[in-house]
Prior knowledge:
- By secondary structure, the chain is mainly beta.
- The protein has one domain: TolB, C-terminal domain (Neuraminidase).
- 6% of the residues lie in helices and 47% in strands.
- It contains one helix and 22 strands.
- The strands form five sheets. An eight-stranded mixed β-sheet has the order 16-17-18-19-1-22-21-20, with no helix packed on it. A four-stranded antiparallel β-sheet has the order 2-3-4-5, with no helix packed on it.
- A hairpin with a 4-residue loop joins strand 21 and strand 22 (261-269).
- The chain is globular and about 45 Å long.
- The chain starts with a helix and ends with a strand.
- The chain binds calcium ion.
Amino acid sequence: MKLLLCGIVLLGVACQKKPVPATPAPAVIDNRPAPEWKSHARLAYEVVQELPHDAEAYTQGLLLSQGNWIESTGGNGTTTIRRVEKNTGKVLLKKDLVANFFGEGVAELNGKLFQLTWKNQQGFVYDAKTLEWQKNFTYSGEGWGLTTDGKSLIMSNGSDRLRYLDPNSFRVLREVVVRRDGKAVDKLNELEFIEGEIFANVWYTEEIVRIDPADGKVIGVIDLTGIDAKETRRNPDHVLNGIAYDPAARELYVTGKCWPKIYQIRLVPKK
Ligand SMILES: [Ca+2]
């Protein structure tokens, strides 16, 4: 098994030698004018509404799918993939993973859900409707956050690098180095592709960085200080992690690990 895995890893490295050129971020996403927040580099937030969230769910990946949450939770023995009713927090469908898999990011593409694991170097593909397992895939290094631009899977691994993966072969298509004012931004965690940008939680911070997919530059920062009452966190690990977006309604949601709430927020210029 180790030899086989090594072969796959080596193949992955070999494939990286032929880089695929970056796709520039489109200036116009659809016929609507760009959201107002795009013209500000420093953003704060206003809470629009609070929705219930399972305070036992160690959120590692969050997205909206057909009006419901899809959530990947982590922990040894508490790893799940689940569909949750958006307004009530009721778990509609849930699959538990065996205890040695520690769940991480999740993304939906082409009718499938892709779920990463932390150190197992294995991900899982599910049918997006039924959550039926379809197959495993492998990658090198750790798995943290996952999202998609509609073509590729985009993954973080706790470093300052984002990797673009082919959703069929899982080949590494390209790697983006994330820099903020020229300095590396590491510990990139949960991701969401929003209006042509990549939003990323930064582990153990109250900030979301907005990344230009073309060159990895941080083009803006969202300060979420004070969004939850930190004193109610039962564990210091229960940090901000979880970004979901409804592109049609242009609604943005954030949560954290084991937070009792998901917050719909409006982005406003930071004073
Ligand atoms: Ca997300």
